[in-house]
Each structure stands twice: as structure tokens, then as C-alpha cells.
Amino acid sequence: MGSILQSFQWLLLFMLTISVNVYAFKIPRLGTWRRSKERDPQIISSSSNFSDDFKTFYYTQRLDHFNYRPDSYHTFQQRYVINFKYWGGAKSSAPIFAFFGAEAPLDDDVYFVGFPRDNAPQFRALIVYIEHRYYGKSIPFGSREEAMRNASTRGYFNSAQAIADYAAVLLHIKKTLSAQNSPIIVMGGSYGGMLASWFRLKYPHIALGALASSAPILYFNGIAPQAGYYYIVTKDFKETSETCYQTISKSWSEIDRVAKKPNGLSILSKRFKTCKKLNKSFELKDYLDSLYTDAAQYDFPSENPVKVICSAIDAAAKKTDIVGQIFEGVVAFMGHRSCYDMNEFNRPTETYIGWRWQTCSEMVMPIGHERNDSMFPPAPFNMKKFVHECSSLYGVLPRPHWVTTYYGGYDLKLILHRFASNIIFSNGLRDPYSSGGVLENISNSVLAVTTVNGCHCLDIQSRTAKDPEWLVRQRKEEVKIMKGWITEYEADLIAFSKQSKAATPKKG
User: Fold this and answer.
1) CB–CB of 103/71 below 8 Å?
2) What are the pLDDT digits (tens) for 379-408?
3) Which residues have a catalytic role annotated?
4) Between the CA atoms of 197, 201, 204 and 208, what dihedral angle is there, to the nearest 10 degrees?
5) CATH architecture of the region 33-42+50-220+403-491
6) Which of 181, 214, 292, 450 counts the highest number of beta carbons within 10 A?
7) pLDDT at 459
8) Could you check whether 33-42+50-220+403-491 and 224-381 share the same CATH topology?
């Protein structure tokens, strides 16, 4: 009876999450890859099996790192994988590349994120990928349903606990491999990039440096403009095709106009081949909003989804109306299908459910549409409504000020100029989330590496022969900086070793 009740509660949470997200507020998801790729069966199949070079381990992780209540001592198994292939070994003090998993299972990171693997040979580095708690196979309380069941079990699901997990795992690895002198460079993309930069600030005794790719650490508490994200999405489309931009801008009112006709929603459902009949025109508009932002955020040069969408929209101008043009853009991006699921981007995957909790608790990024410089209809972020809906869904109030309180953010250059060191903030300026990123050098060792044409987390994706020269240069710059860190570390290691020997009393 208890398991049936828990299953019902879990299903209810799914349904509430969908309704709250779609109808009350919308914070675009982070992540190192496109949302549509998450559900590509071939990619999921390929990424589920690590290559023979990776060995899977589980660390007995403490549930709560910050309290001494009895339940704090509960544990769960946290997954991490290691690639020993290129490591020079502990005796040579060869470095460790540690990639921090984010709001998704570890499998996809190993598959998509090739930067550690591509550069490990020249560093003779050990490669480690660590899964984020509450995702993949790193689930407390025995099951995902139980872990997300109520406010008490979800209370251990936050970024501070996550980076404390990473600290524990990395210290365990160094101890197990007798690699005390092997410097660690932590890496992450998107939310994982934020974790990497915060880890360097909170645990400088563990991480020599951090590579934070597409980390919007300034998109909190009003530091970055709310409309910044959608401004860049609009800019990407406008720079690709002025006529495409104009068509999309006009389409929202046209969709509403058709919807108001007798059987208007049926007409729209038929024209867009929706899998289920539309109940509101908003369902279609929300789908298109997600589609455009997904294309702009992950506008990889090898695929150019923004160009693909705009080419299809523009090509259809002479043979159909605005609604028809927009549908041609959908087909070009999503592919030919028997029908199109308007809930495609809101399905209750574990990533979706987990990230909804994280944004409703501490990762509150106020992102909205504004009338000016946007191809989207006005929809400003409403914090009061956001707080109400999150409270209704989870029974706790969001903490929109906590990230800047715990990690900082205001006066970043002034504060970090002397306090922080050895962090790379990399961004592509076509990435909508770059509006909340660090785009200027803070000091001689807290550096911003940007590219005009780059998109979200592009620099940490696997290297290919077709990579444009500007991307090759960006990665080389990041590698050069990391080599400088390690060279300085090795010099310090030798110098302090000599001092230690000189200070040791001679026998006899």
C-alpha cells in the first residue's frame, strides 16, 4: 500500500511540475548539450556504455556534510569513472582532470564532453568524471522516487552539498592512488561550470585551477539583466536572417489571431501536426519559444540549427503564410515526424524534475522577455508569482539571494581581483547564457576566454576535424593557461621540497 501511495505522489509531482513550469514561469535549462539530443535513442544507447578506457567506481558518500544530526550520517553510493590511459602516475606528480557532472546522468558527459580526453595525453593526466548527487545512479534514499518524495528528502539536494561531494571523492582518489602531489584541475560546463568556479573559490587546497565553460554565475539576484538571455537569442536570429527574425516576431500575434477563429485551435493543431489537440495557443507558443532558445543556445557550427530554421522559414515565404513558414522551421529543426509533441521540451525526465527543484530552491535565475529588442512577446519575470508557484509545488520558499550570499557575485572584479586565482571563464558570445557570464579578465590568473561565434559549452565538446579555426584557438588558449598553472605548481613543489629538506635536522 505504501509503495502504491509513493508512486501516486511521484506521478502527482510530475504533473504539477509540468503545469507549474509551462503556465507560470520559464527559466531556460542549462546543460552541456541540446535538449532534443537527450532523447535521441542512438545517442542514449551509445553514451550508456563507457569505452574500455573508463572504469566505473562508487564512493560511499555522506548524505549531509554540514550537520551532526543522526540522519546526516546516512550514506549513498556516488558514481564516478576514471580513465587511467594517459596518466603519468603519482611518482611523476602528473595532474588530474576532474569533470563535474551537473543536472544529468554522468553517461552523457562522458560521451559529449571530450575536452579532458582530448588534452589528457599532452598533460599525461588522469581523467575523472564525477556524477552529481540525485542524478543518474548517484541517488540517496534508495530510489529517485524516495529521494524526491518530500521537502525533507529533497533538502539535501543543493550545490553546496554537491561540491562537498566532489571534494570528498577527489581526496579519496588522491589517497587511494597515493597521488598527494598530483595537482587537480576541475572542469565543468553550464551549471557544472558554475560548480567548478565555486569549487576553486571554496576548496583551493584541493583544486589547483578551474575551467568554467559557459557558466552564467552573474545571472542571480539582479546582477545580469533579466532580458539578456532572450536579447541574445533574438540577436542570433536577426544576424542570421533579418526576414526570418521579422517572420518570427510577427508569428505570435498571427497564431493568436488564428486561435480565436471558430475551431481555431483545431486549425493550428492540424497545421502544426500536433500529437494532441491544442487546448490553448500558449501551448504552441511555449513549444516554439523552447525550440528557438534551444537552437540559439546550442548553435554548434557543425549543425547551425539557427541557420537551418531560418533557411526553412525564408524558403517557404513564397508558397505559404506566416503560420506555414513557422511550421517549416519546426520541421527543419526537429525533423520529419508523424506528429509533433508540444510537450517535447517539458517532459518529466529526471533532469527536468531535478532542475525544477534546483531552480525553485536556490538556482533562481530571473529570465524574462521584454518588449524592446526581442522577437518574443513581452513576458517579464514575475518573482512574486515564481515564489508562490514554487512554494505551492514543493512546500518551501525559494532563496533568490542565497547564491550571491554564499558564493558572491556583486562587485566580482573588485572582490576576486586579489582573492581568487586560476579560473578560466570561457564563453561563446552567441550563447544566450553568456549574458550572465564573466566576459572580461578579472586578474592575471582569473581570465575570460571568449569567442564571437561560439555557443553554449562548445569549447569542452569533443574535438573534430571540422572545428573552425577560432574554436581551435580558444581551446589552445585554455590549454596554454592550464600549462602555466601546472608549471608554476611544479616549481613551487620543488622549491618547498628543498625548503623542507633544508629545515629537517640532520641525524647524528
Assistant:
1) no
2) 999 999 999 999 999 998 999 999 999 999
3) 190, 431, 456
4) 30
5) 3-Layer(aba) Sandwich (3.40)
6) 214
7) 98
8) no
Is residue 18 within 8 Å of residue 290, measured between CB atoms?
Answer: no
In contact, 340 and 327? CB cutoff 8 Å: no
Does the domain spanning 224-381 belong to CATH 1.20.120.980? yes
- pLDDT digit string, tens, across residues 299-308: 999 999 999 9
The secondary structure element, H or E, covering residue 81 is strand 75-83
Look at the block and give the residue holding cell 558564493: 407
The β-bridge partners of 81 are: 56, 129
- Residue 301 CB partners (closer than 8 Å, separation 6+): 453, 458, 466, 467, 468, 471
> Could you tell me which residues come within 8 angstroms of residue 48 by beta carbon, excluding any fewer than 6 positions away?
107
User: Does the global pTM surpass 0.90?
Assistant: yes
Sort strands 184-189 and 209-213 into parallel, antiparallel or unpaired: parallel
Rounded to whole angstroms, the Cα distance separating 216 from 236 reads 18
Phi and psi at 61, nearest 5°, equal -95, 140
Residue 358 CB partners (closer than 8 Å, separation 6+): 103, 157, 158, 159, 191
Domain boundaries, the chain: 33-42+50-220+403-491, 224-381
Cell numbers 542570433 label which residue? 236
